[in-house]
Amino acid sequence: MALEYYGTVESVLLYTGVKPADFGLTSTTGGDTAEQKLNSLITGWLREATDIIDRMIGGSYLTSDNVPPGLHNIAVRIVANMCAQAILRRETPVIRIGEFAVRMTDDTIITPAIMRDLSRYTKRIPLRSFVPNLQED
């Protein structure tokens, strides 16, 4: 079965320890449980992280049967950063510096460490595909 995204909801939950209450999610009568809503939120973020990863490395490993385990880890870390930011923004939308200076919370989800790790998975197009055929017919 082909994967839809890197990482798993379970991995994100174990890595972060987030709970539905951290995002203000509650069960609805006759609807989804708080846990289902959290799983759906994280699934969406994993899809977004996968898109970011694929664009940064210049291709997708999802089309192959051999997805490097490190990409799953990177996706989980990106989503963990998204979780942390969402929780932080809910609790403190601005950071007060001294008496007067106010700054919004940082929205960086791709850290230097993640960038370094992503560089190891860059998809390279073989040089042959760029070499023109100079033979005369």
Per DSSP E runs of 2 or more residues, the count of β-strands stands at 2
Mean pLDDT: 84
Distance between the termini: 46 Å
Name the structural class. mainly alpha
Describe the structure.
With 137 residues, this protein is mainly alpha-helical. The chain contains four helices and two strands. The protein has helices spanning 9-16, 34-57, 69-91, 112-119, and strands spanning 94-97, 101-104. It has a two-stranded antiparallel ribbon with strand order 1-2. Helix 1 crosses helix 3 and helix 2 (34-57) crosses helix 3. The protein starts with 8 loop residues before the first helix and ends in an 18-residue tail after the last helix. The model has no long low-confidence stretch (mean pLDDT 84).
List the helices and strands and how they pair.
Blueprint: H1 9-16, H2 34-57, H3 69-91, E1 94-97, E2 101-104, H4 112-119
Antiparallel strand pairs: 1-2
Quick gist of this model?
With 137 residues, the chain is mainly alpha-helical. It is built from 4 helices and 2 strands, in the order H-H-H-E-E-H. The protein has a two-stranded antiparallel sheet.
Key attributes of the depicted protein:
137 residues; mainly alpha; two-stranded antiparallel ribbon; 4 helices
